[in-house]
């Protein structure tokens, strides 16, 4: 019955986020503790909605029931955009491994997890960030824990580092912390609104990235001679970006975010074997951003561990930016909060 505690089902939405000062490198792989603090902007209503219930309770349709009976050995049933995922898939395995952390306190049951992404799952638009944030919040809703945001952020971090930032809207800072147990490594919302802030997403290619972020950052920390300068730069950049947000100094924000992203890519490229996430289309776009900026249009870019480019600009430049970059998807992070 639905009156019992825990609830029959828990559900939550979490936005995706894009870092302006990047998280790159861990000091603890098991707890996802970062070497440097990072700062992001959440993407409003673009993200993940997740629903969670105990498995086998109230399976509605016969087709679902048949699908379930076909895989009796799996503990959890994991759906992504309505499609049941194989328990051998890395997607289902990461979710089940995460749920293992909470199972003992929730009756050791298997779960049915339904997750819907409204962001393109393409390279570089992190769905693990919104995914684990939504999963933790759905668990909290299901179990009736009523955890404070800071705790939700720390739990989401255990699923994926960047997920620690996706439990909030707007600008968010993830404090790296120094404790080996992670008790001071959580994200916090920066209270500044910037309604004119725009993000443009260019999906250049949906080619799967050759190396995931997780292995990529470990390889960078272990082998890149440039990585030793990264924590210092990230520390400087995050302060500059914080100040720029506070003072609404878009030029300072854009310049610092672009330099931060390209510096991260420099550490990736100098790893061995080299990590080159940029594709020819990415390079062409980087040069085009420089060209239009030289022509007086104030637009900056950021790039994650993938080939796609994200543009940063203000509402006043929206028409010109859209004209210069056909196919651009424009996100208004402060106007699309659900
Ligand atoms: C970020 N990225 O700050 C950086 C920039 C990619 C490039 O956080 O191993 O999926 O799960 O902690 O969070 C992607 O890494 O890695 C990421 P894990 P995660 O957004």
TrEMBL record:
Residue intervals of the Diphosphomevalonate decarboxylase-like N-terminal domain: 14-187
Transmembrane segments: none
GO BP terms in the entry: isopentenyl diphosphate biosynthetic process, mevalonate pathway
Gene3D superfamilies, per database record: 3.30.230.10, GHMP kinase, C-terminal domain (3.30.70.890)
Gene Ontology CC, one term: cytosol
Taxonomy, superkingdom: Bacteria
Residue ranges of domain Mvd1 C-terminal in the record: 204-321
GO molecular function ontology, one term from the record: diphosphomevalonate decarboxylase activity
EC number: 4.1.1.33
Keywords: ATP-binding, Lipid biosynthesis, Lipid metabolism, Lyase, Nucleotide-binding
InterPro entries the record matches: GHMP_kinase_C_sf, Mev_decarb, Mev_diP_decarb, MVD-like_N, Mvd1_C, Ribosomal_Su5_D2-typ_SF, Ribsml_uS5_D2-typ_fold_subgr
Pfam families attached to this UniProt entry: MDD_C, MVD-like_N
Key word Zinc present: no
NCBIfam families on file: mevDPdecarb (TIGR01240)
Family the entry assigns: Belongs to the diphosphomevalonate decarboxylase family.
PANTHER family, alphabetized: DIPHOSPHOMEVALONATE DECARBOXYLASE
Protein name from the UniProt record: diphosphomevalonate decarboxylase
Organism: Pontiella desulfatans
């Amino acid at each position: 019955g639905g009156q019992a505690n825990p609830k029959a089902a828990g559900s939550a939405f979490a936005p995706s986020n894009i870092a302006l000062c990047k998280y790159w490198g861990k000091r603890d792989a098991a707890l996802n503790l970062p070497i440097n603090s990072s700062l992001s902007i959440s993407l409003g209503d673009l993200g993940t909605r997740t629903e969670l219930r105990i498995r086998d309770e109230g399976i509605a349709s016969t087709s679902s029931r048949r699908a379930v009976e076909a895989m009796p050995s799996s503990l959890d049933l994991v759906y992504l955009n309505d499609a049941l995922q194989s328990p051998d898939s890395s997607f289902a395995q990461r979710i089940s491994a995460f749920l293992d952390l909470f199972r003992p306190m929730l009756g050791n049951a298997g779960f049915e997890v339904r997750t819907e992404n409204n962001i393109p799952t393409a390279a570089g638009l992190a769905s693990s960030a919104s995914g684990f944030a939504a999963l933790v919040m759905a668990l909290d809703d299901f179990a009736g824990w009523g955890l404070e945001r800071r705790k939700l952020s720390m739990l989401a971090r255990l699923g994926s580092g960047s997920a620690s930032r996706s439990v909030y809207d707007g600008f968010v800072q993830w404090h790296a912390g120094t404790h080996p147990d992670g008790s001071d490594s959580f994200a916090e919302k920066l209270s500044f609104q910037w309604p004119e802030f725009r993000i443009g997403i260019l999906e250049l290619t949906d080619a799967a990235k050759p190396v995931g972020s997780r292995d990529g950052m470990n390889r960078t920390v272990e082998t890149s001679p440039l990585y030793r300068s990264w924590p210092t730069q990230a520390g400087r950049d995050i302060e500059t970006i914080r100040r720029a947000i506070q003072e609404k100094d878009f030029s300072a924000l854009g310049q610092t975010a672009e330099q931060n992203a390209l510096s991260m890519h420099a550490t990736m490229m100098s790893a061995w074997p080299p990590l080159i996430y940029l594709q020819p289309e990415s390079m062409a776009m980087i040069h085009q951003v420089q060209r239009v900026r030289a022509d007086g249009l104030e637009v900056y870019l950021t790039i994650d561990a993938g080939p796609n480019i994200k543009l940063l600009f203000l509402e006043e430049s929206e028409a010109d930016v859209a004209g210069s970059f056909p196919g651009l998807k424009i996100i208004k992070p402060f106007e699309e909060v659900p």
